[in-house]
């Protein structure tokens, strides 16, 4: 039987499960191209095992509920720091079929990776929902209370019954069982998935606001106080979506 070409081996190694005997045979192949492919395959295998282990570790809080035949929602919010736009929260319910190893704190993921993960998360979770609290409400309540309200809304908007909540560094005024986790988006897959969906939702909203209120670069800064945003405030003044109680905006009032 003729041996496979390097191109054929490259395609072969894209399979998820490679026969150990076949891999052993390839390791003995004296072609440099084959050795490079085998090395890359083994490196990817080791990285995926490490990623799987980390993923399993970040499911420990969900598994407490699953072991009791219960479901839990992960909740996170984004947008506390910007000078403009709402604070947005997401709630996500998943089960033990969820297998997106790359789900993590949204701040640790590139824009491209988030764009890839968002439809995959929505497809795999049992349910997801959002809570949105406007800049006007933020000014009325303060940003901390507004974040709590957005999280509460996200939970209340879920169309799935859950027996508990996993929340990123927050406790809500609800009677349901809650687990508040410091850096929860880095410690829980549910919260991490919620952080990705919340950020995507808010980023898209700010891109829409960029069309309505040009001159502040909202599509790129998402309302944060970048140089272009501050220059926009200086030139164009305050918009209805600016948080008027935030110091850099307040000085441009009147």
Automatic annotation (TrEMBL):
RNase H type-2 domain segment(s): 70-254
* Signal peptide, first to last residue: none
The family database entries (InterPro entries) matched by this protein are listed as: RNase_HII (IPR022898), RNase_HII/HIII (IPR001352), RNase_HII/HIII_dom (IPR024567), RNaseH-like_sf (IPR012337), RNaseH_sf (IPR036397)
Give the first-level EC class, as a single word. Answer: hydrolase
Q: Which key words are in the record?
A: Cytoplasm, Endonuclease, Hydrolase, Manganese, Metal-binding, Nuclease
Give the family this protein belongs to, as stated in its UniProt record: Belongs to the RNase HII family.
Name under which the protein is recorded: Ribonuclease HII
Q: Which GO MF terms does the UniProt record name?
A: manganese ion binding; RNA binding; RNA-DNA hybrid ribonuclease activity
Q: Which Pfam families match?
A: RNase_HII
Q: Which cofactor does it need?
A: Mg(2+); Mn(2+)
GO cellular component, as recorded: cytoplasm; ribonuclease H2 complex
Which reaction is recorded as catalysed by this protein? Endonucleolytic cleavage to 5'-phosphomonoester
**What Gene3D superfamilies would the database entry show?**
Ribonuclease H-like superfamily/Ribonuclease H (3.30.420.10)
Give yes or no: UniProt keyword Hydrolase. Answer: yes
Q: Cofactor note from UniProt?
A: Manganese or magnesium. Binds 1 divalent metal ion per monomer in the absence of substrate. May bind a second metal ion after substrate binding.
- State any GO BP term from the record: DNA replication, removal of RNA primer
Please state the Enzyme Commission number of this protein.
Answer: 3.1.26.4
Q: Which gene encodes it?
A: rnhB
Predominant location = cytoplasm
């Amino acid at each position: 039987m003729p041996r496979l070409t390097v191109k054929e081996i490259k395609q072969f190694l894209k399979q998820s499960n490679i026969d150990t005997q076949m891999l052993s045979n390839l390791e003995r192949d004296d072609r440099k191209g084959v050795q490079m492919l085998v090395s890359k395959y083994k490196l990817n295998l080791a990285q995926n095992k490490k990623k799987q282990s980390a993923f399993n570790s970040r499911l420990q809080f969900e598994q407490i509920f699953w072991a009791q035949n219960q479901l839990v929602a992960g909740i996170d919010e984004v947008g506390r720091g910007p000078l403009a736009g709402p604070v947005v929260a997401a709630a996500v319910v998943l089960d033990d079929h969820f297998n997106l190893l790359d789900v993590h704190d949204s701040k640790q993921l590139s824009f491209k990776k988030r764009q890839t993960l968002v439809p995959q998360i929505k497809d795999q979770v049992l349910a997801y929902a959002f809570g949105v609290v406007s800049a006007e409400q933020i000014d009325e309540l303060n940003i901390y209370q507004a974040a709590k309200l957005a999280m509460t809304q996200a939970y209340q908007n879920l169309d799935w019954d859950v027996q508990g909540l996993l929340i990123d560094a927050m406790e809500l005024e609800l009677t349901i069982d809650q687990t508040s986790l410091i850096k929860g988006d880095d410690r829980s897959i549910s919260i991490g998935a919620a952080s990705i969906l919340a950020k995507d939702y808010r980023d898209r909203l700010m891109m829409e606001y960029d069309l309505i209120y040009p001159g502040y670069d909202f599509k790129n800064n998402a309302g944060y106080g970048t140089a272009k945003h501050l220059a926009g405030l200086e030139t164009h003044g305050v918009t209805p979506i600016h948080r008027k109680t935030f110091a850099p905006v307040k000085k441009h009032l009147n």
